[in-house]
Write a structure and sequence with these properties.
The chain contains 21 helices and no strands. The longest helix has 36 residues, at 2-37. The chain has helices at residues 2-37, 40-61, 64-70, 76-107, 112-129, 131-139, 143-166, 176-192, 203-237, 240-258, 261-272, 279-306, 308-316, 324-331, 334-340, 343-349, 353-378, 381-407, 413-439, 445-466, 472-486. It starts with a helix and ends with a helix. It is globular. The chain folds into 2 domains: 29-201, no CATH class; 232-487, no CATH class. It is mainly α and 487 residues long. α1 (2-37) runs antiparallel to α11 (261-272).
Length: 487
């Protein structure tokens, strides 16, 4: 049993990592180029439209994707019924979003939002009808196909965005990639898992998974507010230019989160759902994942914080210095977020979407209260960034208290022990970076980034080797030997 879990996890993470990290490098190049061509306001305008689109997307998904993965008894007829449901609800929600483009543009007093929202309605529709074929790919653990599909589409879409920006399309170049990706990914997925479309809404099948999916939907709905309310508030209260600076800092902070925990998270649910009736085994397996994430996430937060100026200026240019401080503040939550982002997979795998919803409701209340206080008391993007970092720490404690005491029936101490090595390592890195920073004040930004990052990574590897968390030397030797034999 344990070997199968390790094999499937390793396979899933391997292919997810290929896609994510290749996409990361390419997306950084795309963002760096677009940031030097487009105006700050362009990013703020698209951010507002994307936030509203994501909100409506929660009404089209209705928690169906994890429900399809979790329920093993579903048949082809059920998948076709769910596909029909997503098709017709997708049309309805897309028409609503298209119609809302007028009041949205009026509310934010920006005419460009009208056309941006209308074009993004294409993305909303294709993302909705992609739910069933995409879920089946994960359910059947076809991680290799998912990885290379995602990478290929992202590269083509990103290249198209750069060409469009250079051709003078302005902010419209920012929506080429998401629209193009949604259409092509659906076509590729549907060819892999075709489903019949009927005139009915497939209520018979929806009722089978409603209890599970309804709480998943409610969680997605409230999670939307905790993840996006900051942008809506900044856009309305402070304007599009501050939102542009904040959006850049937030997106850069999210890159490691999306490319670490989001590599592991989608793999965890399909695999751990096979052990939904063995909570002890599931818990101990998950804690091993948490230990690895803590050793990556907390040191990474330190590296990002001490290299905030270098990263912002090197990637986006000298005109984006107002994004430096909110970025550094947001990085304080990276370690916590990387672990917390995987908790949803455990709630899902244990059939506990109701508890997931309750946890999300409490967390969202804390997050929203923090953001409202920050924007009203201090009226700055830095204050909002502080509220995000502080509330994520509180949410971490609340979420795992619910998960461990009420779902896994296990002491929280088992989880907290897995976090300690990562916190100790990050404490060492903080001291080292404070000292190193004093000696490299006047050198080139790129050289500063290389030195501080290089020292931090080296110390991290030495720490992991000496504490015997992982035998890095042995792994290197195993890798080198086969290559020496081949040569």
């Amino acid at each position: 049993m344990e070997m199968n879990v390790k094999k499937n996890m390793a396979k899933g993470i391997y292919y997810s990592a290929i896609a994510k990290y290749s996409s990361l490098i390419f997306s950084l190049i795309v963002v760096a180029i677009l940031s030097r061509i487009l105006d700050y306001k362009d990013f703020g305008i698209v951010a507002i439209a994307s936030v509203i689109l994501n909100f409506l997307s929660t009404f089209t998904s209705l928690g169906l994707e994890p429900a399809i993965i979790q329920h093993k008894e579903l048949e082809q007829k059920d998948y076709s019924n769910i596909f029909s449901f997503t098709f017709w609800t997708g049309i309805i929600i897309t028409i609503i979003f298209f119609g809302l483009s007028w009041p949205i543009s009026k509310f934010y007093d920006n005419s460009a939002l009208l056309y941006i929202c209308q074009i993004l309605s294409i993305q909303l529709f294709f993302s909705t009808i992609n739910i069933v074929p995409n879920s089946l790919l994960f359910k059947n653990k076809e991680f290799r196909f998912i990885a290379f599909r995602t990478l290929g589409v992202q590269m083509i879409g990103g290249a198209g965005a750069i060409i469009a920006a250079l051709s003078g399309l302005g902010l419209y170049s920012l929506i080429i990639n998401p629209v193009f990706s949604s259409v092509i990914i659906f076509i590729l997925n549907f060819r892999k898992y075709p489903n019949r479309l009927s005139l009915s809404f497939g209520i018979e099948t929806i009722s089978k998974i409603f209890t599970y999916s309804s709480y998943q939907f409610l969680f997605g709905l409230i999670n939307y507010f905790s993840r996006n309310l900051d942008k809506l508030i900044i856009g309305k209260q402070l304007g599009m230019t501050p939102l542009g600076f904040y959006e850049k800092s937030y997106r850069l902070m999210m890159l490691p989160l999306q490319n670490i925990s989001h590599v592991i998270g989608p793999v965890m649910h399909p695999i751990f759902s096979d052990f939904q009736n063995n909570l002890q085994y599931l818990s101990s397996s998950y804690e091993k994942v948490v230990r690895i994430l803590a050793l990556i996430g907390f040191p990474l937060a330190v590296i990002l914080f001490f290299n905030g100026s270098e990263l912002i200026i090197l990637f986006f240019g000298n005109n984006w210095t107002d994004s430096i401080m909110p970025f550094k503040i947001l990085t304080l939550s990276v370690g916590t977020q990387i672990i917390l982002a995987t908790s949803g997979s455990i709630f899902q795998a244990t059939n506990s979407t109701k508890a997931l919803f309750i946890s999300g409701l409490i967390n969202t209340s804390v997050t929203v209260l923090g953001m409202i206080l920050a924007i009203n008391l201090y009226k700055s993007i830095n204050a909002v960034a502080w509220s995000i970092s502080i509330t994520f720490i509180l949410n971490f404690i609340l979420t795992y208290t619910i998960l461990y005491y009420y779902i896994l029936k296990r002491k929280l101490l088992f989880l907290l022990k897995q976090v300690v090595p990562g916190l100790l390592l990050s404490s060492i890195l903080i001291l080292i970076n404070i000292i190193v920073s004093q000696y490299i004040l006047n050198i080139h930004l790129f050289l500063s980034l290389v030195i501080k990052s290089g020292i931090s990574i080296t110390i991290s590897l030495i720490y992991i080797q000496l504490t015997k968390e992982y035998n890095i030397y042995e792994l290197i030797v195993k890798y080198i030997k086969p290559h020496n034999k081949k040569s």
